[in-house]
Write a structure and sequence with these properties.
The chain is α+β, with helices and mostly antiparallel strands. It has twelve helices and 15 strands. It has two domains: 6-145, Aminopeptidase (3-Layer(aba) Sandwich); 154-317, Endonuclease Chain A (Endonuclease, Chain A, 2-Layer Sandwich), CATH 3.30.870.10. An eight-stranded mixed beta sheet has the order 8-14-13-12-9-10-11-15, sandwiched between helices. The protein has a four-stranded antiparallel beta sheet with strand order 1-2-3-4, sandwiched between helices. A three-stranded antiparallel beta sheet has the order 5-7-6. Helix 5 packs parallel to helix 7 (201-211). The two termini are 37 Å apart.
Length: 318
């Protein structure tokens, strides 16, 4: 089950200093015995900071994006590690780097954390070195530019609006709204492609629009039971067979992913719609919820990497 009791938000170095220090002092000064004079530097006041808070507003994690195109001071309190907080912070920082037009991002990664950053697209380079007596490697990743930047300003972030669905019509309205505001990317985790939501003219039209939106278009779909959708002649499968480059469908391989009980949709405007039981249409979401969106996208990416194209769909392609 994905924890939904933390949020990610921008932080002000002046206004949120006490909370930022609380996290970094606990992780770096106390746990890792880093000297205070090496923890605080002149970049802090010039950087963009992000803070994660629990449901009571207490700080649990932080990170910063520096003006020299670096990410650093990534810290998550011990009892919150392994719950998607670090991934959520990184995704928000990378989004900020993209909005600022940074072509690439570098960071100093503690050697034991290399797999964490590699999962997020970073590659190590250079020799291992010591920083504060801790082994580190340099890592770098390119930041894909927004296609819209070449010809038009980025649309403003939408106002957050809750999406509540107690029946099919409300669920369909929520899904259609999230698809209609998506620019280039969506990700769907579903049991059997949910014909009541995705084999419908208005949603199929939106998926097709996204798939044809340009070279950055990416429609990723995880389906636990593709045979049912195939047997029912689901039109989204036909669309995927015609648009094989922008639309990709995979089936989970591991039992834990096949037995995942929920279903969700996320778009590239930080909106989501989540159904606790994938076999039912009731759910909740928001048109703009960066923290929850980052959690769901992180889970999706993890399952996507350990999934493969469905054998049933592959045979259909031939």
């Amino acid at each position: 089950m994905i924890p939904d009791d933390f949020t990610i938000e921008p932080a002000s170095w002046e206004q949120d200093l006490a909370d930022l220090r609380a996290v970094r002092e606990t992780v770096f000064l106390v746990e890792q015995s880093i000297p205070p004079e090496m923890e605080w530097d002149a970049l802090d006041a010039r950087s963009r900071h992000v803070i994660a808070r629990d449901h009571d507003g207490r700080p649990i994690g932080t990170g910063r994006l520096t003006p020299d195109h670096g990410i650093g001071r990534m810290a998550v309190l011990a009892n919150w590690r392994g719950k998607g907080v670090g991934e959520a912070i990184m995704r928000v920082l990378l989004e900020q780097a993209r909005l600022l037009g940074y072509p690439a991002i570098e960071l100093h990664a503690q050697t034991h954390a290399l797999p964490f950053y590699e999962k997020l697209g970073f590659e190590p380079f250079g020799e291992e070195f010591l920083e504060c007596a801790i082994p580190h490697r340099m890592m770098r990743r390119t930041v894909e530019p927004l296609a819209a930047l070449a010809s038009a300003p980025l649309p403003p972030a939408p106002e957050a609006r809750l999406l509540i669905a107690d029946d099919r019509s409300q669920a369909l309205a929520a899904v259609t709204e999230l698809l209609s505001v998506a620019r280039y990317e969506i990700a769907i985790y579903t049991r059997d492609l949910d014909a009541a939501l995705f084999d419908v003219a208005e949603t199929l039209d939106q998926v097709k629009r996204i798939a044809l939106s340009g070279r950055h278009a990416q429609v990723r779909i995880l389906v636990q039971e593709p045979r049912k959708a195939l047997a029912d002649g689901h039109r989204l499968i036909g669309l995927a067979q015609r648009l094989t480059t922008p639309i990709a469908i995979r089936t989970p391989l591991e039992e834990r992913d096949l037995q995942y009980p929920s279903a969700f949709l996320v778009n590239d405007r930080r909106g989501y719609f989540f159904r606790m039981l994938g076999s039912r249409l009731e759910g909740e979401g928001s048109t703009y919820a960066p923290g929850r969106h980052a959690q769901l996208l992180s889970l999706f990416d993890q399952v996507w990497e350990r999934s493969s194209p469905s054998e049933d769909l592959r045979q259909l392609a031939f």
